[in-house]
UniProtKB/TrEMBL annotation, chain A:
Its cofactor is Mg(2+); thiamine diphosphate. CDD domains: TPP_E1_PDC_ADC_BCADC (cd02000). The gene is pdha1a. Residues 69-363 form the Dehydrogenase E1 component domain. Keywords: Carbohydrate metabolism, Glucose metabolism, Magnesium, Metal-binding, Mitochondrion, Oxidoreductase, Phosphoprotein, Pyruvate, Thiamine pyrophosphate, Transit peptide. It catalyses: N(6)-[(R)-lipoyl]-L-lysyl-[protein] + pyruvate + H(+) = N(6)-[(R)-S(8)-acetyldihydrolipoyl]-L-lysyl-[protein] + CO2. GO terms for biological process: glucose metabolic process; pyruvate decarboxylation to acetyl-CoA. This is Pyruvate dehydrogenase E1 component subunit alpha. Its EC number is 1.2.4.1. It comes from Chanos chanos. The pyruvate dehydrogenase complex catalyzes the overall conversion of pyruvate to acetyl-CoA and CO(2), and thereby links the glycolytic pathway to the tricarboxylic cycle. It comes from the Eukaryota. It is found in: Mitochondrion matrix. GO terms for cellular component: mitochondrial matrix. Pfam families: E1_dh (PF00676).
From TrEMBL, chain B:
Signal peptide: none annotated. It comes from the Eukaryota. InterPro entries: PDHB_mito-type, THDP-binding, Transketo_C/PFOR_II, Transketolase-like_Pyr-bd, Transketolase_C. Its cofactor is thiamine diphosphate. Heterotetramer of two PDHA1 and two PDHB subunits. The heterotetramer interacts with DLAT, and is part of the multimeric pyruvate dehydrogenase complex that contains multiple copies of pyruvate dehydrogenase (E1), dihydrolipoamide acetyltransferase (DLAT, E2) and lipoamide dehydrogenase (DLD, E3). These subunits are bound to an inner core composed of about 48 DLAT and 12 PDHX molecules. Interacts with DLAT. It is an enzyme of class 1 (oxidoreductase). It comes from Chanos chanos. This is Pyruvate dehydrogenase E1 component subunit beta. Its EC number is 1.2.4.1.
């Protein structure tokens, strides 16, 4: 039936351009697609919680298309970064997020842009969901003036409104996030802070210090451990005496969530947000997820895990495929429609990469700027006593 | 004593001024205030002025402060603004920085700066560098304060001076008050500053009273960060110091004056950004320079001053090498006689002045 409609609509369009824009889609009536469907999602393991998130999630067509687009954008952006890194146009550290898209997208779907979020160095995906554009992200990676931090931060130091980076020191972002949550509570704006860390960071002492204070002071903080099974090259069994990361908060209620399923992540996040906003204090979520790339671009990622393992996750649990299958099997979108989105995404990434490789580097005048906020201009010593550089706020 | 504190906390009460006349010799409007009370006043006034300001640290609330610097503040402002933390420096320093990023203006107290070493990553990597890394998107308006340097009989792990450590880092401002006016004016500036400021106080100075001018008693009295003060004019030699050692320099100067040697004593007030202009102007006048600090010699505050003097115009005016008087290059011992000989004494300053002047 769908095929017939496509043929008819194409005929009717006649000489309509075939540039893959939405025009073709709008020729189809919405009656063709299921506006929403309910999906069973995996039950979460619970710690100190009587009830968990619902085991069913309602997905509307619009939501599905949006999640698909965002995850695909994220995926393609990271792969483009991989490419640019291998061409030596990106240098230094580059920690890629492909495979974990459902986490970033699912979390954002469960909170508001007025809420706050902080994560560690695998941050490109969150920079995107928190309002950054692919253009500014790639240009930051290539160290250009059009980068989100004007080229001064790089991969690990990207910021947007209510997004506090991008943090290079493992675990340091967790107390920072609790501090943001303290500010939320202090300012009484009913906002919360999502505070992310990895399975490697989960053993950091300062995280336990933070659990203690967040719990004592009932801070509106959702601690989220993105467990991608490896802290750099060390598997979780070799790093943690207890790999039940959702229980490591001890007195903090926790849940373990399928991090490859964007709906599961969304429902869990909504549940956690409700917990925080009702004044019950912090809550902990462990997202079980996987990264396709190695720890960073200097890690091929196969010395401590097998290619078969990576391939298995790709074929059985890929978050984008999972969403795509759900939508197609329930007539919530068409193959062509999704392909169009892919094409649009590819174009967006290509344009962004083009910008990121042609935008000029930051001007040398900018070298000493941004030392202090709201201060008059000062002089900064250069590499020798005769070189005095100017610094403005 | 309690009534004195009460008056000070409630502001410039004219009645108290009249009652206190017998303490001081100069202007009748001046008042004797200890460094502790000056710091307390500064925090009280800033907490009242801006509701985003809050204080957190160990024992700051119900204990009234480990050294009583925050006495009375919890009673006045309550749990929301004055927060007792568990003994978890890295955690609460990070929480303070995060709160600053999200719009509040925290004062993070370290019981002593020795414990700040546990949290130093948060001070440097999370606070100092963030405005730069974000190219101006994310300011961090935070104050880290607490006692720094040697105390009395607290031994090696509790006696270190961190002026050189924090003074090393771009993105931080580092201040080191000596007198009560310094303490009040500089701490107020630090709290009003939109950037990370490290305030290095001194435990031995907390109880020392100083005359506080009428101007300094005002709720809007601030001292600019980055300006040194010439505490004593002189023509024969320049002594540059910070914190408690400023007092030692003034004492040494008084003794030397009897022998006809006039020392110019400069109170740095700010470690970073350092006011090298004031030092240079003084050296160009006196032709001799000695730096005096409580901290260790290697890579210290004095080393930096000497290097800058070498690199600047004042070098041509030196009639003798610039030298440093510093703490002895050892961990701080416990026994009193050993401890006394571990930091500069007045006689060490006098000796160094005479050596430099070749008298």
């Amino acid at each position: 039936m769908q095929k017939m409609l496509t043929i008819i609509s194409n005929v009717l369009r006649g000489s309509a351009s075939r540039n893959g824009t939405r025009v073709v889609v709008s020729a189809r009536t919405y009656a063709d697609f299921t506006p929403q469907a309910t999906f069973d999602i995996k039950k979460c393991d619970l710690h100190r919680l009587e009830e968990g998130p619902p085991q069913q999630a309602v997905l509307t067509r619009e939501e599905g298309l949006q999640y698909y687009r965002t995850m695909q954008t994220m995926r393609r952006m990271e792969l483009k970064a991989d490419q640019l890194y291998k061409q030596k146009i990106i240098r230094g550290f580059c920690h890629l997020y492909d495979g974990q898209e459902a986490c970033a997208v699912g979390i954002e779907a469960g909170i508001n842009l007025t809420d706050h979020l902080i994560t560690a160095y695998r941050a490109h995906g969150y920079t995107l969901t928190r309002g950054g554009t692919v253009r500014e992200i790639l240009a930051e990676l290539t160290g250009r003036r059009g980068g989100i931090a004007k080229g001064k931060g790089g991969s690990m130091h990207m910021y947007t409104k209510n997004f506090y980076g991008g943090n290079g020191i493992v675990g340091a972002q967790v107390p920072l996030g609790a501090g943001v949550a303290l500010a939320c509570k202090y300012q009484e704006k009913n906002e919360l802070c999502v505070c992310l860390y990895g399975d490697g960071a989960a053993n950091q002492g300062q995280i336990f210090e933070t659990y203690n204070m967040a719990s004592l002071w009932k801070l509106p903080c959702i601690f989220i451990c993105e467990n991608n099974k490896y802290g750099m090259g060390t598997s979780v069994e070799r790093a943690a005496a207890s790999t039940d990361y959702y229980k490591r908060g001890d007195f903090i209620p926790g849940l373990r969530v399928d991090g490859m399923d964007v709906l599961c992540v969304r429902e869990a996040t909504k549940f956690a947000a409700e917990h925080c906003r009702s004044g019950k204090g912090p809550i902990l979520m462990e997202l079980q997820t996987y990264r396709y790339h190695g720890h960073s671009m200097s890690d091929p990622g196969i010395s401590y895990r097998t290619r078969e393992e990576i391939q298995e996750v790709r074929s059985k649990s890929d978050p984008i495929s999972m969403l795509k299958d759900r939508m197609l099997n329930n007539n919530m979108a068409s193959v062509e429609e999704l392909k169009e989105i892919d094409v649009e995404v590819r174009k967006e990434i290509e344009d962004a990469a083009q910008f990121a490789t042609t935008d000029p580097e930051p001007p040398l005048d900018d070298l000493c700027n941004h030392l202090f906020y709201n201060d008059p201009p000062i002089e900064v010593r250069g590499t020798n006593p005769w070189t005095k550089l100017k610094s403005v706020s | 004593m309690a009534s004195l504190r009460c008056f000070l906390r409630s502001g410039r009460n004219a009645v108290s001024v009249i009652l206190r006349r017998e303490f001081h010799k100069t202007s009748p409007a001046a008042l004797q205030v200890t460094v502790r009370d000056a710091l307390n006043q500064a925090m009280d006034e800033e907490l009242e002025r801006d509701e985003r300001v809050f204080l957190l640290g160990e024992e700051v609330a119900q204990y009234d402060g480990a050294y009583k610097v925050s006495r009375g503040l919890w009673k006045k402002y309550g749990d929301k603004r004055i927060i007792d933390t568990p003994i978890t420096e890295m955690g609460f320093a990070g929480i303070a920085v995060g709160a600053a990023m999200a719009g509040l203006r925290p004062i993070c107290e370290f019981m002593t700066f020795n414990f700040s070493m546990q949290a130093i990553d948060q001070v440097i990597n999370s606070a100092a560098k963030t405005y730069y890394m974000s190219a101006g998107l994310q300011p961090v308006p935070i104050v880290f304060r607490g006692p720094n340097g040697a105390s009395a009989g607290v031994a090696a792990q509790h006696s270190q001076c961190f002026a050189a450590w924090y003074g090393h880092c771009p993105g931080l401002k580092v201040i080191s008050p000596w007198s009560a006016e310094d303490a009040k004016g500089l701490l107020k500036s630090a709290i009003r500053d939109d950037n990370p400021v490290v305030v290095l106080e001194n435990e031995l100075m907390y109880g020392v009273p100083f005359e506080m001018s009428e101007e300094a008693q005002s709720k809007d009295f601030t001292i600019p960060i980055g300006k040194a003060k010439v505490e004593r004019q002189g023509s024969h030699i320049t002594l540059v110091s910070h914190s408690r050692m400023v007092g030692h320099c003034l004492d040494a100067a008084a003794v030397l004056a009897k022998e006809g040697i006039e020392c110019e004593v400069i109170n740095l007030r700010t470690i970073r950004p350092m006011d090298i202009d004031t030092i240079e102007a003084s050296v160009m006048k006196t032709n001799h320079l000695i730096t005096v600090e409580g901290g260790w010699p290697q890579f210290g505050v004095g080393a930096e001053i000497c290097a800058r003097i070498m690199e600047g115009q004042a070098f041509n005016y030196l009639d003798a090498p610039a030298i440093r008087v510093t703490g002895v290059d050892i961990p701080m011992p416990y026994a009193k006689i050993l401890e006394d000989h571990s930091t500069p004494q007045i006689k060490d300053i006098i000796f160094s002045v005479k050596k430099t002047l070749n008298v």
